[in-house]
Amino acid sequence: MRVIFNGLFRQVADELNRTAGDLAAAQQQVSSGRRITKPSDDPSGASSAVTDHAVLGTLDAYTKTADTATSRLAVVDTTLSDMVNKLAAAQTAAASARGSSAGQSQRDAAAATLRGITDALVSDFNAQFHGAYLFSGSLATTAPYVAGAGGVISIYQGNATTMSVDLGQGRPLQTAFVGSGIAQGSDPTDIFTVLANLMTAVTAGDAVGIGLGMAGLDRAADRATLAQTQVGTNLNALDDARARLSARRLDVGAQLSKTEDANMASAITQMSQADTAYRAALGAFSKVGSVSLMDYLK
After folding, report:
1. pTM (2 decimals)?
2. What span, in angstroms and rounded, lies between the C-alpha atoms of 79 and 270?
3. What does the alpha-carbon distance between residue 256 and residue 50 come to, in Å, rounded to a whole number?
4. Sign of CA dihedral 281, 283, 284, 290
5. Nearest-CA neighbor of 156 among 196, 117, 184?
6. How far, in Å, are 125, 131, 144, 153 from residue 217 at the CA level?
7. Is the alpha carbon torsion for 14, 15, 19, 25 positive or negative?
8. Which residues of 83-97 are buried (b: 16+ CB within 10 A; e: fewer)?
9. Coil, helix or strand for 276?
10. What are the 10-residue block averages of pLDDT along the chain, 298 residues in total?
11. What whole-number distance in Å separates Cα of residue 63 and Cα of residue 71?
12. Which of helix, strand or coil describes residue 144?
């Protein structure tokens, strides 16, 4: 009897431990809403979940990059619009001083307007985003143009290396620009030299010089407009990229949820069944435990 009792006791105790474990696992699923809380719950599913979490991390990083790039390009776009407007205002000022009807005071006023426009354009080319210059190529801490003594503007201080971001599409999106490409391009002199010469021509009433200066302004405006078109294209591409990343994230998130999350209806049913089994095992254990010493000694 002793051997039989010991075997029965161990069997009932093992069953009680098993049902208690099943009940705890079911309760954990219901309370956390997760089917997998540790790798041993489902090794294959846990491995898949690790991969999905890594993909989500990459997608979130790309999305953050896209958001930052959009904000950055929005500043570039606004700045280029201001450049185009300033160049148009310079055209108007130069035209007002052209012809024999313009007196010296009118020409001096036009020259003063051109001086103010020059200063404003220097400010535009030195635009920054979070402390980084936008038109210095990859030299983000270097101002592309510097105003010196007497209003003389320096040559381009940046470099010819553009900066781009990768959003996993295999096509980089430019977010920083080479200021000299807009200010000068293929012209022999940059826009600041053009404006300085134009001011001299306006003050002197030099019609030929004014004409050359206005032609230089036209070319600079074309370059700024071309750069703005590129910015618009990149902003559209960023919108598309964010939509793609969002859709991909939803897909991966749904896949991860299917792997990790508990089916609540099923989990509640399992918890109810585990509770019933545990109570039955507990009842069986109590009956075995109530065997008297005399029963044990028989």
Report:
1. 0.76
2. 63
3. 9
4. positive
5. 184
6. 15, 29, 19, 17
7. positive
8. bbebbebbbebbebb
9. helix
10. 54 57 52 60 77 90 93 97 98 90 91 96 97 96 92 94 84 90 96 97 95 97 97 94 92 81 55 58 58 50
11. 12
12. coil
Claim to verify: residue 172 and residue 248 sit in the same structural domain: yes
Which amino acid, residue 165? V
Determine the length of the chain.
Answer: 298
Task: Count how many domains the chain has.
Answer: 2
What's the number of CA atoms in the CB half-sphere (13 Å) around residue 56? 15
Residue type, 252: V
Please, what is the angle between helix 207-260 and helix 191-204, to 10°? 150
pLDDT for the residue numbered 123 = 97
**Angstrom distance (rounded) from CA 166 to CA 174:** 9
pLDDT of the residue at 47: 83
Other beta carbons within 10 angstroms of residue 3's beta carbon come to 7
Q: Which tokens in the block code for residue 134?
A: 């936008």
Cα–Cα distances (Å) from 267 to 16, 18, 31, 44, in that order, read 20, 17, 10, 20
Judge if 103 and 25 occupy the same domain.
no
Q: How far is the C-alpha of 282 from the C-alpha of 276, rounded, in Å?
A: 10
The whole domain housing 283 covers: 2-33+262-297
Name the residue type at position 96: S
> Is the residue at 141 inside a domain?
yes
> Are residues 277 and 181 part of one domain?
no
